[in-house]
Amino acid sequence: MTDLLALLGHNVAILYIQHRSPYANLQSQETLDALLVMAAFGQLTRVLFQGDGVWQLVGEHHGHAFARTAISAQLQALDLYEVDEIFVDAQSLASRQLTLDDLTRPVQLIASEQIATFISQHAMVVRL
After folding, report:
1. Helix %, strand %, coil % of the chain (to 5)
2. Which class does domain 2-126 fall in?
């Protein structure tokens, strides 16, 4: 926690990795909540959707069926907090037979072999 508080005084790059399906558990929503909090503090926040996390970007989700807030509503809040660096693992998308046209928002594709380098460019990485 001390490290996190120290970071608040500096504008550092923080990467949040979304790798779970929208409603498998609460981690997807908790990761988005954490991202929005840090963005509210003016931190440079980026998000990478990987694995089943790419399903969060597909179509309209109905969180009420799971007694939860819809992930799509939380994702719309990214714009309000000026989180516009949204990345998707290209292999995760392709292996689920999805294309950019299937996604609800613009993203930047990143090749799987570039992900390790991409992650290393961030001062903090959050993957729940």
Report:
1. 45, 20, 35
2. alpha beta
